[in-house]
Amino acid sequence: IPITVLILTAGLSQISDGLLETARDVGANRWQVFWQIILPLLKRPVLIVLSLNFLGIFGAFTIPYLLGPASPEMMGPYMQRTFNNNLPSQAQVQAVITFIISALVSIFYVRAVVSQRLEEER
Are 51 and 3 in contact, with CB atoms under 8 Å apart? Predict the structure, then answer.
């Protein structure tokens, strides 16, 4: 959570107060300011935060493993438990599915970054 807050706060600090005041002067309410000004300007920080959190969730192994049975179910320890219970084919399927999901999210991330860079060049 700290890195998420840090990235989003840095993104918010880049938004000009004059831009927000201008929107309010034109008659935009808080929701309109948020949806039409703040959120589009925070597109890149939000994308980075979502990607980092996604990779952290799918890559989490150490903390749930150390917490033991009281920890929430995460993919890493679940695959290890499946493999240790002599079900290697199920563990392999879980690993392949996790890889496919991670690859799809990575493709989405790369496309979003490339499209943002192309928009900036225009």
Answer: no
Model pLDDT for residues 23-63, shown as the tens digit of each residue: 999 999 999 999 999 999 998 899 889 888 887 777 776 77
Q: Which domain holds residue 79?
A: 42-122
Residue whose entry in the numeric block shows the structure tokens 């199920």: 90
Helices assigned H by DSSP within 14-87: 17-26, 30-33, 39-41, 43-59, 62-67, 75-84
Is there a single domain that holds both residue 62 and residue 37? no
Closest alpha carbon to 36 in 23, 17, 22, 21: 23
Structural domains counted in the chain:
2
Same domain, 59 and 27: no
Q: Are residues 15 and 73 in the same domain?
A: no
